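User: I'm curious whether this sequence folds into something compact or stays loose and floppy. Could you predict its structure so I can see for myself?
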Amino acid sequence: MALAEIIPIPRQVLHQEVATRLRQRIVEGQIAPGAKLNERELSELLNVSRTPLREAIKMLAAEGLVELLPHRGAVAASLSEQDVADTFEVIAGLEGQSGELAAQRITPAELAEVQALHYEMLAAYTRRDLSTYYRLNAQIHTRINAAARNPVLTQTWCNVNARLQALRFRSNFDEAKWQRAVQEHERMVELLAARDAQALRQLLVQHLVHKREAVLELMRTGQLQAGPGGARA
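Assistant: Here's the prediction. I'll summarize afterward.
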């Protein structure tokens, strides 16, 4: 599986870009759950000063990807098995609601965008380019959520989903489960185009349940680090 390479960040880029690069490292597991974020090392790695780096860390803390702990500083967030089960249970309901509303409210232009992203995602899957696949996959879920046209739902979904980004990425480490996720995405796009609200709701809930099962299996077999305080096999 191909992972994203880190390239120098131009000096004129704001802290949002630094946050994007740092988020990617956390999501892809290059910074392990519970690991301390070393400002000096990250500044050198990302080729930025500590000021935008600290602003980026604050952004990721607000998203839930980073925890700011007394006497330890910033560490990559970690979840226990129970945390994972509970959070996926919530996100499954939110995604199901998003899908139901999106099927009713999505515009032809928005549908075309989702379909285009889906085809790009399939190409990334064919190359086994997991980094690009996940980026496009996340955009599809975001577009479906936005098409629901419910700001409260969107904000709640964003807050909960931020905690799960790294785990959703890792759920594709198993080839069979990755293939199943792709097949589910194929069906999602079909149901969205057909505007079958109830079927899309059910599929999205099932899709997130499968993600939860994949992550918990990895945690229980010791293939996925849970971080300090998290469960390990």
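Summary: The first strand starts at residue 66 and ends at 69. Confidence is low (pLDDT under 50) at residues 227-233.
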